[in-house]
Specification:
The chain is of the alpha+beta class. Helices cover 41% and strands 20% of the residues. A hairpin with a 4-residue loop joins strand 1 and strand 2. It is globular.
Protein backbone atom coordinates (compact mmCIF):
# COMPACT_ATOMS: atom_id res chain seq x y z
CA UNK A 1 0.00 0.00 0.00
CA UNK A 2 1.12 3.58 -0.59
CA UNK A 3 0.23 7.16 0.29
CA UNK A 4 -2.93 6.90 -1.84
CA UNK A 5 -4.17 3.90 0.11
CA UNK A 6 -7.68 4.38 1.28
CA UNK A 7 -7.86 8.05 0.35
CA UNK A 8 -11.11 6.97 -1.30
CA UNK A 9 -12.47 5.96 2.13
CA UNK A 10 -11.61 9.27 3.78
CA UNK A 11 -13.13 11.22 0.90
CA UNK A 12 -16.38 9.24 0.89
CA UNK A 13 -16.73 9.26 4.67
CA UNK A 14 -16.12 13.01 4.87
CA UNK A 15 -18.73 13.58 2.15
CA UNK A 16 -21.33 11.40 3.88
CA UNK A 17 -20.63 13.10 7.21
CA UNK A 18 -21.90 16.26 5.47
CA UNK A 19 -25.21 14.44 4.86
CA UNK A 20 -24.50 13.99 1.15
CA UNK A 21 -25.37 10.97 -1.00
CA UNK A 22 -22.08 9.71 -2.50
CA UNK A 23 -19.09 10.51 -4.70
CA UNK A 24 -18.44 9.53 -8.31
CA UNK A 25 -15.45 7.40 -9.29
CA UNK A 26 -13.91 10.15 -11.48
CA UNK A 27 -14.07 12.47 -8.47
CA UNK A 28 -12.30 9.93 -6.23
CA UNK A 29 -9.49 9.57 -8.78
CA UNK A 30 -9.22 13.32 -9.45
CA UNK A 31 -9.31 14.20 -5.75
CA UNK A 32 -6.41 11.88 -5.01
CA UNK A 33 -4.44 13.25 -7.96
CA UNK A 34 -5.13 16.82 -6.80
CA UNK A 35 -4.12 16.14 -3.21
CA UNK A 36 -0.79 14.58 -4.18
CA UNK A 37 -0.30 16.73 -7.32
CA UNK A 38 0.23 13.67 -9.48
CA UNK A 39 -2.31 13.96 -12.27
CA UNK A 40 -0.26 11.91 -14.71
CA UNK A 41 0.25 8.94 -12.38
CA UNK A 42 -3.27 7.60 -11.76
CA UNK A 43 -5.76 9.74 -13.60
CA UNK A 44 -6.36 7.76 -16.76
CA UNK A 45 -7.50 4.52 -15.10
CA UNK A 46 -9.85 4.09 -12.15
CA UNK A 47 -9.41 0.33 -11.78
CA UNK A 48 -6.83 0.72 -8.99
CA UNK A 49 -9.48 2.22 -6.70
CA UNK A 50 -11.99 -0.56 -7.40
CA UNK A 51 -9.31 -3.20 -6.83
CA UNK A 52 -8.28 -1.60 -3.55
CA UNK A 53 -11.90 -1.33 -2.36
CA UNK A 54 -12.48 -5.02 -3.04
CA UNK A 55 -9.17 -6.47 -1.87
CA UNK A 56 -8.23 -4.09 0.96
CA UNK A 57 -11.44 -2.95 2.63
CA UNK A 58 -11.51 -0.44 5.43
CA UNK A 59 -12.12 -2.47 8.59
CA UNK A 60 -15.75 -2.53 9.70
CA UNK A 61 -17.12 -0.80 6.58
CA UNK A 62 -18.63 -1.80 3.25
CA UNK A 63 -18.56 0.37 0.14
CA UNK A 64 -21.87 0.72 -1.66
CA UNK A 65 -22.26 1.78 -5.25
CA UNK A 66 -25.74 3.11 -5.81
CA UNK A 67 -27.55 5.16 -8.42
CA UNK A 68 -27.85 8.91 -7.97
CA UNK A 69 -30.81 10.18 -10.01
CA UNK A 70 -29.65 13.80 -9.65
CA UNK A 71 -26.27 13.04 -11.25
CA UNK A 72 -27.65 10.25 -13.47
CA UNK A 73 -24.60 8.27 -12.42
CA UNK A 74 -23.35 5.70 -9.99
CA UNK A 75 -21.93 7.07 -6.71
CA UNK A 76 -19.88 5.54 -3.92
CA UNK A 77 -20.89 5.54 -0.25
CA UNK A 78 -19.59 3.68 2.83
CA UNK A 79 -21.55 2.15 5.68
CA UNK A 80 -20.60 0.24 8.76
CA UNK A 81 -21.02 -3.51 8.34
CA UNK A 82 -23.93 -3.56 10.82
CA UNK A 83 -25.56 -0.33 9.66
CA UNK A 84 -29.31 -0.43 9.13
CA UNK A 85 -28.70 1.54 5.92
CA UNK A 86 -26.49 -1.17 4.45
CA UNK A 87 -27.92 -2.73 1.31
CA UNK A 88 -28.95 -6.26 2.12
CA UNK A 89 -31.21 -7.18 -0.79
CA UNK A 90 -31.22 -6.36 -4.46
CA UNK A 91 -27.47 -6.12 -4.90
CA UNK A 92 -24.27 -7.67 -6.21
CA UNK A 93 -21.62 -8.40 -3.58
CA UNK A 94 -17.85 -8.57 -3.98
CA UNK A 95 -15.63 -10.21 -1.37
CA UNK A 96 -11.92 -9.92 -0.63
CA UNK A 97 -10.01 -13.20 -0.69
CA UNK A 98 -10.71 -15.41 2.32
CA UNK A 99 -13.32 -13.06 3.83
CA UNK A 100 -16.96 -13.70 4.69
CA UNK A 101 -18.09 -10.08 4.71
CA UNK A 102 -18.38 -8.23 1.38
CA UNK A 103 -16.17 -5.21 0.81
CA UNK A 104 -18.23 -3.83 -2.08
CA UNK A 105 -21.95 -3.93 -2.78
CA UNK A 106 -23.51 -2.67 -6.00
CA UNK A 107 -27.21 -1.89 -5.95
CA UNK A 108 -29.22 -3.56 -8.70
CA UNK A 109 -30.59 -0.12 -9.61
CA UNK A 110 -27.09 0.66 -10.93
CA UNK A 111 -27.21 -2.52 -13.01
CA UNK A 112 -30.65 -1.62 -14.34
CA UNK A 113 -29.74 1.99 -15.17
CA UNK A 114 -26.62 0.87 -17.02
CA UNK A 115 -28.68 -1.79 -18.86
CA UNK A 116 -26.38 -4.60 -17.81
CA UNK A 117 -26.87 -8.25 -17.02
CA UNK A 118 -26.07 -9.32 -13.49
CA UNK A 119 -22.60 -10.56 -14.44
CA UNK A 120 -20.21 -9.26 -11.76
CA UNK A 121 -17.24 -8.81 -14.08
CA UNK A 122 -19.33 -6.97 -16.67
CA UNK A 123 -20.70 -4.62 -14.00
CA UNK A 124 -17.27 -3.70 -12.63
CA UNK A 125 -15.83 -3.29 -16.15
CA UNK A 126 -18.68 -1.00 -17.15
CA UNK A 127 -18.27 1.22 -14.05
CA UNK A 128 -14.51 1.47 -14.64
CA UNK A 129 -14.93 2.19 -18.37
CA UNK A 130 -17.55 4.89 -17.72
CA UNK A 131 -15.20 6.60 -15.27
CA UNK A 132 -12.16 6.23 -17.51
CA UNK A 133 -13.92 8.03 -20.39
CA UNK A 134 -14.18 11.13 -18.20
CA UNK A 135 -10.71 10.76 -16.68
CA UNK A 136 -9.03 10.72 -20.10
CA UNK A 137 -10.61 14.14 -20.74
CA UNK A 138 -9.48 15.54 -17.36
CA UNK A 139 -13.07 15.55 -16.10
CA UNK A 140 -13.20 14.70 -12.39
CA UNK A 141 -16.20 16.64 -11.22
CA UNK A 142 -19.91 16.46 -11.91
CA UNK A 143 -21.25 19.99 -11.52
CA UNK A 144 -24.32 22.03 -12.30
CA UNK A 145 -23.80 24.79 -14.85
CA UNK A 146 -26.11 27.21 -16.63
CA UNK A 147 -26.36 24.57 -19.37
CA UNK A 148 -27.24 21.74 -16.94
CA UNK A 149 -25.25 18.95 -15.34
CA UNK A 150 -21.86 18.17 -16.85
CA UNK A 151 -18.42 16.77 -16.08
CA UNK A 152 -15.47 19.09 -15.84
CA UNK A 153 -12.33 19.84 -13.84
CA UNK A 154 -12.43 20.17 -10.07
CA UNK A 155 -13.91 23.45 -8.86
CA UNK A 156 -12.54 25.54 -5.98
CA UNK A 157 -15.15 24.36 -3.46
CA UNK A 158 -14.23 20.74 -4.20
CA UNK A 159 -10.52 21.47 -3.79
CA UNK A 160 -11.21 22.86 -0.32
CA UNK A 161 -13.27 19.77 0.52
CA UNK A 162 -10.43 17.48 -0.66
CA UNK A 163 -7.87 19.32 1.47
CA UNK A 164 -10.14 18.93 4.52
CA UNK A 165 -10.90 15.27 3.90
CA UNK A 166 -7.31 14.24 3.21
CA UNK A 167 -5.61 16.49 5.80
Amino acid sequence: MNKYTQSWFRLIKHWLDRKRYGLTLPFLVGATAFKYNEYSKYTDDSSHIIEEIIEYPFDGYIVHIRWCPDYNSEVFAVYEVNSPYRLKKSCQEYYPKDKEVPSLIIDNEVVAQLKLKKDKNEIISCIINRANKHLKLGNYSRVWTDDGLMYGPLVEEEKIFIQEALA
